[in-house]
Fold this protein.
Amino acid sequence: MNDLDIPDGWTRDGTAIRRTFHFDDFSQAWGFMSRVALLSEAADHHPDWRNVWNRVEIALTTHDAGGLTERDFSLARAINDLI
């Protein structure tokens, strides 16, 4: 994988890709996280993430592969499709 494969809005950070999402309030951020959780379960690929009020920070990496795989990019694209 190279940086050209990184979906819009995501940045590479070592062995992960990251993106921060901003919402109008906590309720919108939580709803987004719920939708991401459903995608993640379906893909059996779970993000490292953090929520503070209206902000959701997501990092994707494939821990058992020691870095980025197509699973990360695929989930990032699916997450992007939610917004």
Observations:
- The longest strand covers residues 16-22.
- Residues 26-43 form the longest helix (18 residues).
